[in-house]
Each structure stands twice: as structure tokens, then as C-alpha cells.
Design a protein that fits this description.
This protein is of the alpha/beta class and 116 residues long. It has one domain: Rossmann fold, CATH 3.40.50.2300. Helices cover 28% and strands 15% of the residues. It has 4 helices and 4 strands; from the N terminus they run E-H-H-E-H-E-E-H. Helix 3 links the parallel strand 2 and strand 3. Helix 2 runs parallel beside helix 3. The protein is globular. The protein starts with a strand and ends in a 21-residue tail after the last helix.
């Protein structure tokens, strides 16, 4: 399941069109951080795709759902911790894996197979 989040209905609609794929389902989508977080929980989503400013969403999604793959479209403010940053809507679909991998908890990110 993929949750798309963007601050207004028009850009959310564009983002959902860019994210649709045969290998996964889309949640209804959200225009607020609170709605996106609720959809991550309610739909047991594996992927969150964010476009535009939704302050605190990525950090809170990481806190509540550390295994979720986070894809951000466009620039980030440096406080976000996405798995992937894509430059355009056209790149969104390719950034969503057919089966999202489990994400390591924050303390284990960046460690190689040897644990260091």
C-alpha cells in the first residue's frame, strides 16, 4: 500500500496519478500530515510519497513507522530523512519498489553486512 501526501487537492491528484502502479494499491491520499499518518496506520502502508511542504510528516512517519519507505518529490529542507529523493513526478513510479524492502531501524542505517 502506498500513501501519497501533498498540501493541496490538485497536487495530490497529480501525485497519485504519478504513483499508480499495477503492483501496489494507493490509499486515498492526504493533504495534511495528520491525515497521512492516519492512512499509514489504517492501511498498513509500506510506502509514503510526499510532495510539497507538510511540516513534520517525514519525521513523525519515521518515528511511528520506521519500516516505511519514504519518497520525497523535489527539494527537502534538510530535516527530512527520505529513502529516495526524486526530481519530478515522472520519477515517482520507478522509486516505488514492487515489494518494498524492510527498512532498518535508525540506529542500524548505514551499517554494512559486517555491522560497522
Amino acid at each position: 500500500m502506498v500513501v501519497c501526501a501533498s498540501p493541496d487537492r490538485g497536487s495530490l491528484s497529480d501525485l497519485k496519478r504519478a504513483a499508480v502502479g499495477a503492483a501496489w494499491e494507493l490509499a486515498p491520499g492526504a493533504t495534511t500530515a495528520e491525515d497521512a499518518l492516519a492512512q499509514l496506520e489504517d492501511h498498513h502502508a509500506q510506502v509514503l510519497v510526499v510532495q510539497g511542504p507538510l511540516p513534520g510528516l517525514v519525521a513523525e512517519a519515521r518515528k511511528r513507522h520506521p519500516a516505511v519507505r519514504v519518497i520525497v518529490v523535489g527539494r527537502t529542507d534538510g530535516e527530512e530523512d527520505p529513502d529516495v529523493i526524486v526530481d519530478s513526478l515522472e520519477a515517482v513510479r520507478d522509486a516505488i519498489p514492487d515489494r518494498p524492502p524492510l527498512r532498518a531501524p535508525p540506529a542500524e542505517r548505514g551499517r554494512g553486512p559486517s555491522g560497522g
